[in-house]
Amino acid sequence: MRSIHRLLTVVLVLVGTLTSTGAYGQGGATGAISGAVVDTSGGSVAEAEVQILDTRRESLARKVSTNADGSFVVPLLPPGIYAVVVNKSGFAEAKASGIEVRVTETTKVTISLKPGAVTEKVEISAEITSVETTSAATGQSLGTETVRELPLATQNYQQLLTLSSGAQSELNASAQLGRGNVRVIVNGQREDNNNYLIEGISATDYNVAQATYVPLPNPDVIQEFKVQTSLYDASQGRNGGGNVNAILKSGTRELHGDGYEFFRNDVLNANDYFLNAAGQKRPPIKQNIFGGSLGGPVGQEKYGLFFVNYQGTRQRSALSPGTQINNPGFPSLPTTRDALSIANALSTSAFPIAPTDIDPVILKLLQFKSEQFGDPSGFLIPSVGTPNLDPLKMTYSTAPFLVSKPGKYTDDQFTANWDREFRGARDKVAARFFFSDSESLLPFGAGGLQASLGGTLASSISATDLNFPYDIPVHGRFFSVNETHLFSPRLVNDFRFGFVHINDSLINVPPVTVADVGINRPTNNITKSIYKFTLGSSGFQMGPTPPADQFQNQNTFNLVDTVSWVLGAHVLRFGGDYTRIILDKLFPQTFNGQLFFVNNPGGATDFQKLVVGAPDFSFGGGGVFNHQYRNNNFGYFAQDDWKVRPDLTLNMGLRTELLGAFYDDLCHIGNFDPQLANSGKYPFVYGGCANQLKVAGLSGSGNNTTYHNNYTTGLGPRLGLAWDVLGRHSTTVRGGYG
């Protein structure tokens, strides 16, 4: 860590000493205002004083002067609503209000001055650009009003990501349990190739790089969020998909608050067609999302502004309305489950079964009582259809078997934000804290009767499997501090520190355990779940949800620094970021084991083989399943936004990234070297820490990192242009490469 600290210190010193506008500087969590000041004839007004006022705080945010061509630019502004006040000797003071600055965007204004006394004040309607004309990047920014007013069944703002061009996702079922996670694909990239940020700080789940468990503030906390889909500048990197950046609200000079509840209940719903046909009641769907916000000054604004929010979610929803089991691979079973009755029901002339042939573990399983799948006789393995048909042949059910069972979801989240200005607004500090604890209990696991409703991990699992429940507790924390310092009106530094904590588990809640049925297995001390049973003739499965129990604990530390320097027709930005990833995992993937049974033409059926305990093949996991992954990532960039002409802007940048190789503090990973394999040598390579494990025949060498990154340059050029075709800020042609 000392070497990392020294390297960061050197980089930040170099960044602070680099020298090089209407161009446009904005960091990953800020925006900018650029514009021109003209007289009534359209001529440029040089050396005019331009004040940028923060409407929310009613304070001066920045003060600059126009260039010789009457232009000005104010970079690294926090997103919000601003007013622009212009003063020039011989002209009346002009003020334009309601100028919105959005994250990563530049708002362009043109202000016309009228002759008059300096003391005369004129409120004007400035010409504000509605189309981004200064950047090649494409994307969509959504503000508070849009996020709050568009219908969101689970209050998940990320369901709005597809409003951006090039972004798409699957449709969520209305009965889906939880916060309604979306799998977003941007311009054909993989769903795990997106960057998720809060306040410019990486909040990505580095285990899967998806939005599944990232900290997710509710819409009442979101000031705006931006989705960049392509051609973003050199300040952004790592993944090539979309950049999703959420900006959180801050307080105002006056005390404001609100309260809310979003309510859904099955009394407002019509019943499902299939449940009606079976004479069953509509499934319970009860959802309450409630909360409130409060914001205002701390000590009459002496100590800054605060904003707090709480939101709670309580959901109880049936995950299987109308889902039915009508599987030809599942036989009729007797309502009396003694060995003789089972043997008589399942024995055939091709494969006779005596009571003593039944495997004792399977017999206990067939006799085990549980309400998991709603069997009328109370057995875990249900009796579908009409039992005890012709004992000379295998009889399979064709009658539908309906199951509707509610799942439960709870979530409590809290947000606390604080903002304060120092030294006459030359320094601004913003702190953000977000806390969330949620838990999902899925009665049919990852697949089973939830699969048809778009549930977690459900896409590859049949909707008619009999899967056991599992529990998903998720704990998310987010903390960030941002300090913006004005060295001068044209030289601004933006520094951010962030910490993200994600702790999630997938815990099987088996209705039957290995101890209940007498399974003796080497991995019983790791998982209590029984085997997963698969009938090969139909692919029908029953048992614990794959994978077996797993746990993940991720702590991410992020440092980001950006310097913006306005020089003539150029806005130069330099910066870097450092990410430290600490990821601890317990992942006993298939330690419970899986048994497969297939039909033999003219002989035993798959279910008969199951009953006598004769699997055709099986697999299971074992060995090391705990890891402590560590990783360091560095990124550095330089960006020049050059306004070649009033209607043409070039965005030129260069980024380099050093993505460190993951290593395991427990030394539980190795690397496969194909060159060793091709030469007939032992192909696995282990780090030097392997010598400390004292395992016979296992040795290591070198440092503890066995994954090596041979791509050492990592240079990523970015080139883009934005052309204001008509010169009226209404039509833009963009292009670029990166």
What radius of gyration results from the CA coordinates? 32 Å
Overall body shape? elongated
- The tally of beta strands, per DSSP, is 39
Segments where pLDDT lies below 50 for 5+ residues?
Answer: 1-25, 320-324, 385-398, 448-461
Mean pLDDT: 79
Structural class: mainly beta
Biggest sheet descriptor: 14 strands, antiparallel
Helical coverage, percent range:
under 10%
The DSSP helix count reads: 8
| Intertermini distance | 32 Å
User: How much beta, percentage-wise?
Assistant: 35-45%
Written overview of the protein:
There is one protein chain. The protein is 8% helix and 42% strand. It has a domain at 256-322 and 405-635. It is built from eight helices and 39 strands. Strands 17, 18, 19, 22, 23, 25, 26, 29, 30, 33, 34, 35, 38 and 39 form a 14-stranded antiparallel beta sheet that branches. Strands 3-2-5-6-8 form a five-stranded mixed beta sheet, with no helix packed on it. With 738 residues, it is mainly β. Residues 1-25, 320-324, 385-398 and 448-461 have low confidence and may be disordered.
